[in-house]
Backbone:
């Protein structure tokens, strides 16, 4: 009986943690390609933002900066006003949506993927080491990652932050078949997962935990009958 109670408490705690995480909207930087300006057909660096919460986030007036980490030096995020719950969006250095979509997804494209852009002096992402810092309209930092040297030879792999870590240095590189990463349709030299939502806990995980709770509840009732 003690074992059943312990297991039940553990599962309940896990469900509570997942529920707490999903109930709070949170923007994280889930992917960065600082080598793309010099090693891709569209010739612009990019990063991905993911909303890991359960409600949409209005990013009107939000800005980004690199490793200078300064709101006063930050530039506007343009072209996207809202990130839905569980959605991943892309921001490129200047507006290149058509070329980006063609390179990664081919002629079929990906009509559901939002692509915005940023532009301005002093915010280019360095392939040797740099950072991405995201601020809301009031200047409060919402997300931040730093990274070291990126790929210098093909295939060029994006920095993968599918774990949704924040205020850390990310070093994991994208691998085709892992966390939604794939080889770009029209450029075999690029590997990444633009538009994937691997950082968001899967609904199936939540369902499995609930199923586990139900099973242990049945076992408990049988034990006490």
Residues:
């Amino acid at each position: 009986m003690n074992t059943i109670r312990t297991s039940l408490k553990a599962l309940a705690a896990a469900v509570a943690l997942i529920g707490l995480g999903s109930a709070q909207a949170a923007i994280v930087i889930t992917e960065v390609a600082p080598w793309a300006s010099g090693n891709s057909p569209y010739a612009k660096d990019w990063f991905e933002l993911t909303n890991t919460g359960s409600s949409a986030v209005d990013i009107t007036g939000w800005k980004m900066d690199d490793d200078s980490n300064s709101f006063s030096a930050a530039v506007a995020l343009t072209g996207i006003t809202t990130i839905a719950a569980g959605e991943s969006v892309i921001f490129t250095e200047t507006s290149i949506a058509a070329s980006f979509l063609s390179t990664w997804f081919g002629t079929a494209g990906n009509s559901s993927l939002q692509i915005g852009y940023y532009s301005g002096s002093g915010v280019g992402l360095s392939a040797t080491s740099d950072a991405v810092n995201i601020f809301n309209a009031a200047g409060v930092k919402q997300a931040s990652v730093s990274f070291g040297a990126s790929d210098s030879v093909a295939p060029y792999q994006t920095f993968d932050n599918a774990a949704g870590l924040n205020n850390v240095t990310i070093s994991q590189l994208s691998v085709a078949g892992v966390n939604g990463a794939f080889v770009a349709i029209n450029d075999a030299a690029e590997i990444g997962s633009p538009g994937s939502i691997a950082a968001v806990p899967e609904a199936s995980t939540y369902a499995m935990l609930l199923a586990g709770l139900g099973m242990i509840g049945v076992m408990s009732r049988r034990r006490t009958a």
Notes: The helical segments are 2-23, 36-39, 97-105, 203-224.
